[in-house]
């Protein structure tokens, strides 16, 4: 989700919104100090996850931030993760499955109580919805 988060942050910067993208790189050990510092700096957190919503690392991050940083938060901690069902093998059924930069930017707008038009992000895509970009070469 880091690449999509960077695309969303770059787009949001054109709207006057500054976002900090924190790439955790590893889940064990999880860099709680960096997460807490970023939350303290911004007063907000949006945890992104390529796993399902239920039982995801983003859920753990949101829970821990709410537990440890509640007084620092300007709004409820949020997360974006995949639906709680396996990805379909049908191209048509995966249209709304994958999270992209436009979903991230829209959620950030909601957290800031701003209406952000993300149609530019969606319309600039040159690849089908299930291909992240030119950089993706596999594994299949």
Describe the 3D structure:
This protein is mainly alpha-helical and about 140 residues long. It has a single domain, classed as 3-Layer(aba) Sandwich (Rossmann fold), CATH 3.40.50.920. The chain has 5 helices and 2 strands; from the N terminus they run ααβαβαα. It has helices at about 1-15, 30-40, 55-70, 100-110, 120-125; strands spanning about 45-50, 80. Strands 1-2 form a two-stranded parallel sheet. Helix 1 (about 1-15) packs across helix 4 and helix 2 (about 30-40) packs across helix 3. It is globular, with a radius of gyration of 15 Å. The model has no long low-confidence stretch (mean pLDDT about 90).
Provide key terms for this protein.
2 strands; 5 helices; 140 residues; mainly alpha; two-stranded parallel sheet; Rossmann fold; 9% strand; single chain
Task: Give the SSE map.
Layout: H1 2-13, H2 32-42, E1 46-52, H3 57-69, E2 78-82, H4 101-111, H5 119-123
Parallel strand pairs: 1-2
Helix pairs in contact: 1-4, 2-3
CATH class category name: Alpha Beta
Beta content: 5-15%
**CATH architecture designation:** 3-Layer(aba) Sandwich
Number of strands: 2
Number of folding domains? 1
Q: How many angstroms does the end-to-end distance come to?
A: 19 Å
- Largest beta sheet: what is the strand line-up? 1-2
Tell me, briefly, the overall form.
globular
Briefly note the structural class of the backbone: mainly alpha
Q: Mean pLDDT across all residues, rounded?
A: 90
Describe the main β-sheet briefly: 2 strands, parallel
Radius of gyration, in Å, reads 15 Å
